[in-house]
Amino acid sequence: VFTFGSVPLKTYLPDGDIDLTAFSNNQNLKDTWASEVRDTLENEEKNENAEFHVKEVQYIQAEVKLIKCLVENIVVDISFNQLGGLCTLCFLEEVDHLINQNHLFKRSVILIKAWCYYESRILGAHHGLISTYALETLVLYIFHVYNTFAGPLEVLYRFLEFFSNFDWENFCVSLWGPVNITSLPDVTGNEPQSLCTYYINIK
Q1: Average pLDDT of 35-62?
Q2: Which of 19, 83, 166, 180 is the most buried (most CB within 10 A)?
């Protein structure tokens, strides 16, 4: 079992969650792990003498199966064989090491995450808002554009200045810089109870 995301990266906010992923060579677990973990956590929820209080256990059957619960009022997300999260963690650790300056990248991410979450209310992928990884990509792009900074406050200033003037109508941002939205494929889908078709531009 490994942690990934903002906790091991040390860029978490007080309201952040803990992401765990379990790995196994046993392919049979692929179909059974979620129900087994859910049952175990639900039994722990009923245990009045448990060392850690567990509650609100949920099994989310999305493309990536997820068990979500509260442990001592901290949100914990548990997944299975999710290598992508660990790759992202390693990548961002390498970025922080490359930039150096007493972990300037990580300190800047914490400050900008705090501003986005507490001040502007635009952070939170589970609410249809910007994801943490997307935000980290934007911060990384600011480092690419400006190169040197006196500290996290200057990174926040440059972040706000640059992206408030960015042409969001025609471009999106990638690790390689701005990408014209017209160059992206359209994703087409049908609404559940109608024949109406809608188009989503991937950003």
Answers
A1: 90
A2: 19
